[in-house]
Specification:
The protein is an alpha+beta fold. It contains six helices and eleven strands.
């Protein structure tokens, strides 16, 4: 925090600095594009090593944070999700489509794929594994898991700081595909309907948001290690509303409602990046507490 304050980093802007706190590109409004940063990279490379590298203070003297960042639940599952815009082509295939920030700006740049995390407790992911696995057996995923999934990383969060959407209707079913002494492989099928329903007035009504998403996935459970070894989910959906499509929206498109896609993968949780808390665990949890009690 002290380093960020020293270099003036905070809010929605870009700052470039060396590890010892020297700002580069001073006085310029920087953008995340090559023509803006190429000169600053050359400036950095021309500095003596002593001016590029920082010196770490004694970590034992570090003050504890005023608001500690939470850790993933012990024995839990850490899932990384990705979100991007999609579009159906003339051949019927659905592909990623490029959208731009502030399309009318001659210096516009492409909107990046966004990422967020999903945390499941040990009890939650354990509930996904059938007690007596047989090919064709089904597991209906608990509503607490499905609602957390769809309301946080099953929505369109390409605009960045996006609050969760209250789920209207969600479902996830696991079907056992194969069983061996080492592995249980399960297919996931599901859908989620979140936020406000799509109506003729959705585009005009202020702060209206909604989306629907269909998901498919594959979950593998390693029976010998007693842990989930694979958690792959993809989804295609449509989103709508005035809040996410008003006239001054940063990322605009021609289609309404617009198409988006998600993809999820299992991560180890060992690195600091993998341990980043889910956005709606810390901010804007409109759908309610992140770890809600079981609903009967």
């Amino acid at each position: 925090m002290a380093f960020c304050k020293q270099i003036g980093a905070g809010g929605n802007h870009l700052v470039v600095a060396t590890a010892n706190g020297r700002k580069l590109g001073e006085g310029r409004h920087l953008k995340l594009c090559e023509k803006e940063l190429a000169g600053i990279v050359r400036q950095y490379q021309a500095l003596p090593a002593a001016q590029r590298q920082g010196r770490l203070d004694d970590p034992g003297k570090a003050a504890p944070p005023k608001r500690p960042v939470p850790d993933p639940p012990p024995g839990g599952l850490v899932i990384r999700g990705f979100c991007t815009y999609m579009k159906a082509g003339d051949d019927g295939k659905i592909n990623r489509t490029q959208r731009f920030y502030y399309n009318e700006n001659p210096d516009r740049w492409a909107a990046e794929t966004q990422s967020d995390m999903l945390w499941l407790t040990e009890a939650e992911w354990s509930s996904l594994i059938p007690d007596d696995p047989q090919t064709g057996a089904k597991v209906h995923v608990a509503v607490t898991i499905t609602q957390r999934f769809y309301s946080t990383i099953g929505i369109d969060y390409m605009e960045g700081s996006v609050n969760s959407l209250t789920p209207r209707d969600t479902s996830m079913t696991l079907t056992v595909k194969s069983v061996t002494s080492d592995l249980i492989s399960m297919r996931l099928d599901g859908y989620g309907r979140m936020g406000k329903e799509l109506t003729d007035g959705s585009r005009q009504n202020g702060r209206t948001r909604g989306c629907e998403l269909r998901t498919l996935g594959l979950i593998n459970y390693n029976r010998k290690l007693k842990k989930i070894a694979r958690f792959d989910i993809v989804g295609i959906g449509k989103a709508w509303g005035n809040k996410m499509n008003y006239i001054r929206r940063e990322i605009r498109g021609e289609d309404y409602p617009w198409m988006y896609g998600i993809a999820c993968e299992l991560v180890t949780g060992d690195s600091a990046l993998d341990r980043t808390p889910p956005y709606n665990l810390l901010h804007y949890g409109s759908a309610g507490p992140y770890f809600a009690r079981d609903k009967k």
